[in-house]
Design brief:
The protein is α/β, with parallel strands linked by helices and about 270 residues long. The relative contact order is 0.16. The protein contains 12 helices and 9 strands. Strands 1, 2, 3, 4, 5, 6, 7, 8 and 9 form a 9-stranded mixed beta sheet that branches.
Length: about 270
């Protein structure tokens, strides 16, 4: 699994840097940044676990946070390092490692931790709980962590745009509604884990974390890729209004369960 996922992200490293800037995915970024600003301390030592090319880390470093980055893709980390250098930022290190291997970090070390990718690719619940427990170990008392999962309910909604051909088999609708999906690269973009909000929350409750809140990263705009692009073409100001509102409403119960990315905020 690790090698397959590493190879995938090494190949798409540049795309991953640019992805959160497209008109639709920017909603995911802004909503997550909204949650970070709401729940993280104003300053502190932050671990970006599954940092990718450093999109979040750069923004947080600009705001004065002390950033440590870890990712299993060296190609992604090389881009992250370049981004830090380009913006004149410093870090506490770029670690090429797996989220399942956090022994290098001492207990009670970080003020806050982002886990915005690893849970997408770990098939076994016992391994995901291992990540949660290690994050809990290296987080300071009262520290905040933010975990992200891929939500099958939201993925079903967005499938009209992204992968509708998969549903020539009508049984796939029930799978997306009811199952904890474990797919390999033959059936998805790489080794991937999809789950539902109740399942993810139940899993998180097996750790020692207190769940503070959870949100849907795409908010009420979930699945509306083409529509939001048209809005931006029509008016940049109108688009910005939608982005701002989507971020502010991402924790609303009426929206958060049906977005592609489920984001859970927890406290030690």
């Amino acid at each position: 699994m690790k090698n397959e996922v590493t190879e995938y992200y090494n190949k798409i490293a540049i795309h991953e840097l640019e992805r959160l800037n497209n008109p639709y995915s920017l909603i995911e970024f802004e909503s997550t940044m909204f949650l970070i600003k709401k729940y993280f301390p104003n300053r502190g030592n932050i671990l970006d676990l599954g940092s990718g090319p450093g999109r979040y880390s750069v923004e947080l470093a600009k705001s004065g946070y002390d950033m440590t980055l870890l990712d299993l893709s060296q190609a992604e980390l090389d881009i992250a390092r370049e981004q830090f250098e380009e913006h004149g930022l410093s870090s506490h290190g770029f670690h090429c490692s797996c989220a399942l291997d956090l022994d290098q970090f001492a207990d009670n070390h970080f003020d806050s931790i982002l886990v915005l990718g690893p849970m997408y690719h770990i098939h076994e619940e016992s391994d995901r709980i291992k990540v949660q427990n290690n994050v809990h170990r290296i987080l300071k008392k009262d520290g905040i962590a933010i975990f992200a999962y891929i939500n099958t309910w939201g993925a079903l909604k967005s499938s009209l745009y992204e992968l509708s051909d998969s549903f020539h088999d009508k049984n796939n609708f029930k799978l997306m509604l009811d199952e904890d999906l474990k797919l390999d690269s033959k059936n998805a973009f790489t080794t991937v884990h999809f789950t539902t909000p109740p399942q993810a929350i139940k899993e998180m409750q097996k750790s020692d974390f207190e769940i503070i809140s959870y949100a849907g990263a795409e908010s009420f705009v979930s699945g509306m890729n083409l529509e939001i692009r048209k809005v931006k073409e029509k008016s940049k100001n109108l688009y910005n209004n939608y982005i701002k509102a989507a971020a502010e409403y991402c924790e609303k119960p009426q929206y958060r369960d049906a977005t592609e990315h489920l984001v859970i905020v927890v406290k030690k």
